[in-house]
Amino acid sequence: MTNEPKRLPPEALDAWLERAARTLHLDRAEVPIPLILDVAADVAHGVARPAAPLSTFLLGLALGRRSSEGATLETLAADLSVLAETWEVDQESAN
Questions:
Q1: What are the distances in angstroms from CA 12 to CA 16, 19, 32, 56?
Q2: How many domains does the chain have?
Q3: Structural domain contains residue 27
Q4: Of all helices (H) and strands (E), which one includes residue 51?
Q5: Does 5 map to a domain?
Q6: From CA 64, how far away is CA 49, in angstroms rounded?
Q7: How far is CA 95 from CA 12, 18, 26, 89, 91, in A?
Q8: CA 66, CA 76: separation in Å to the nearest integer?
Q9: How far is Cα 36 from Cα 26, in angstroms, rounded to an integer?
Q10: 87 phi and psi, to 5 degrees?
Q11: What is the dihedral of CA 24, 41, 56, 6, to 10 degrees?
Q12: pTM to 2 decimals?
């Protein structure tokens, strides 16, 4: 048995989204795959790979909490992407 990561073709990703959204009682149409993957890629490359899933979780949490304030997924995603693109390791000690 190998520990190689699974590679999903695009149609498998769509099938996963369909099933996962149904399981979580979400509307699949509300999930912009390219936007979410772009944010994950920005964070993975600008910060660290393990930060990508954490950041997408934070993105969803922020949207859930701040949508009543007018926050949008696109705006929050852009904010995270900018943060990732400008991230420097020594920033953590500055805060």
A1: 6, 11, 16, 20
A2: 1
A3: no
A4: helix 51-66
A5: no
A6: 24
A7: 41, 40, 36, 12, 7
A8: 10
A9: 16
A10: -70, 135
A11: 40
A12: 0.80
pLDDT exceeds cutoff 60 at 2:
no
Residues 65-84: tens digit of each pLDDT:
999 999 999 999 999 999 99
pLDDT of residue 12: 86
Do residues 7 and 45 make contact, with C-beta atoms less than 8 angstroms apart? no
Please enumerate, as own/partner, the contacts of 35-40 that have beta carbons within 8 Å and a separation of 24 or more.
Answer: 35/73, 35/74, 35/77, 36/77, 38/77, 38/81, 39/77, 39/80, 39/81, 39/84
Domain span at residue 57 reads: 32-89
Tokens coding 41: 């890629």
- Cβ neighbours of 82 (radius 10 Å): 12
